[in-house]
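Chain A, query sequence.
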Amino acid sequence: MDLTLFFSPIDEAIYENIHSPSALVKSIHLFGEKMPEFRGAQMAIFGVQETRGAAGSQTVNAASEVRKKLYRLKRGTGTYKIVDLGNLKPGIDLQETYVRISEVCRMLLEENVLPVIIGGSHDLDYGQYLAYETLDKLVSLLNVDAFIDLEDKSASANQQHIHQILLHEPNYLFSYTHLAYQSYLIDPLSVNILEKLSFEAFRIGQMRTNLAEMEPAIRNADMLTFDITAVKSADAPANTNAQPFGLTGEEACQLCWYAGQNEK
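Chain A, predicted structure.
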């Protein structure tokens, strides 16, 4: 598959004024004039400008805004190769976007390249999950979100994507762990459903008691999906769906650090 057909290159204005030789962008092979070779890389970043799954979503430019900050960070000491494939072009409809995400992630995973998706509505993790269908393995999924998103088909896609994953056939979901839900934002039946399926869900208050207890679940996950709505509004002011209570920026970074230690 020719990836250039599905991706648009990264706007040069995002990185052209970054001159520090130690900046992270200097170590990233990115889609500028030509698509970088992803084979042999450890990680592939790509943005998704798809918001049809969430009514009133303002995340269409999220990937570009994240890159403006990410690229200026200093690179680490590891000998890893990172590629940035650019922004995935949305499909004709939401289902086609899911298929495109699935195909790209499948190609990356088959080459042992970790896909890191930035932007778009939270339901896009369904497309990422579909990538595992042909890989002949069971998947452990971890989700960080203030909401559990188990609504029925009458709700918007970003409110029912976990429902879709749980009901997907064939079933290759080995385990599901939900972190940072807020009990006053969800139907208690949602937690009961997860418990009956022998899955785990942790309230924000439970996590705060000992955040380190979440490390084993995070490090055991094959796929992690993180909704910025899990972060409280004071620490994520650009998110119109943020709540007064939630994870602090520091706590969110700690969870992501655990994910970075995951050998999967």
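Helices lie at 62-70, 94-110, 125-130, 161-167, 188-196, 204-209, 215-219, 249-260. The mean pLDDT is 94.
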